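Chain and backbone:
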Amino acid sequence: MNDDVATYLARKSREIALLDACLVPPLALPAATTIDEVIDTKLKLAGALRAQRSLHSWAITETARPPIEEWRNGAFTLSYGYQRADLEVRGPPIYPALETRGHAVENYYTCAGMGAAAALFTALSQVHDVVDVHVSRDGYGETRELLERFAPRVRIAPWRLRRALPGGSGARVLLVDSVGPAIPHVDDPMPRDTALVAFDTTCFWRTSGRVARVIRWARRHDVPVALFRSHNKLDSFGIEYGRLGSIVLSWRRRTSAGRMRHLVRETRDAIRLLGVAAIPAHLPPFAGEDAYERASAQRAAAIICNARRLYDRLQRSPLGPGVVLYAHGLYLTIAPSAQLRVRDVKRAAAALCAALTSRGLPARHAGSFGFDFISVEWFTDARTKKNVLRVAPGDGPDATIDALGDGIVEWFGRQTDGALP
């Protein structure tokens, strides 16, 4: 066994031990010695953990609650009001960079990342008659779709860093998206009439320097921030433990308390009325401990290194001009030479995945990222509107990533003008 594989297996054994320790009693499975065994072991533990936690909480409703006001689930403290949607969750700080003297921080958990986005912009549309949301064209497509549904109360406007923004009659909200390439620097200007900086942090680890940078940028200009995310991608150890999202509101107590109280109330009401409150069984019991924080940060760093390694390998191949590595470093896209319809590129993703699997690679046709396995799916490039293939290399040793690059090049080499097999 070479040093790279040994290091990978040692790191994965720590992750497996953290998951197993949450079970009562622990499964104490045999040590994984291959990548496939690592993936299977972690998913088996995730299934057992989900089942155990669901069994523990299945009978808890708004009228059948524990005979105590609060109860614990791992690092989280939970309590209900009259309705199930009144679930209040208190847990460890989501973004340590927010925890500074003189600033208020309000955390809210939701049942998904898009649920968090929907609740936030619903609340903003209630606080303000009209909201002008400035969005980069490179941002997450479903967030733009969501904003379009709020028209005419929410209006979408363009935004590029260090470019003058058009004026408007509505409250100005700047939407920073971790999918996009541009993350503000502390010294970047900001329009004086900005009411809020909203930041989708999904593609950054919670202690990322880029998250801290956006927070410092907003605070330098004394503008409140709203950070929202899906916790499935990077916070669940690659096992998609449960659909979980969050909204975190923060502002300077001395200058913004009055105008933020209304947004806090409306955010709580939006979560309740939209039915997007968190589900107790989806709160990961392994979160909140120092060992978890270290393991997750190392895992996120490994995924980014793998994506860069794969990108460099593909850049040296005939595919190079059509390969794009996203700024967050979690995945890349490959543009077929032909313009493909959605159904065709879906078939191409399935065929590429099957070809990689036949080479013994841990590849799956999966529509997300941040896994231990390689995920392949179709994707629409936000800038070109072209249907492309997205490859998320996941967390694996170097030899696996090199074999993945060879497999992709070989598969594309068998196609003719972007035609499907």
Q: What stands out?
A: The domain at 71-282 is CATH 3.40.640.10 (Aspartate Aminotransferase; domain 2). The chain has a mean pLDDT of 90.
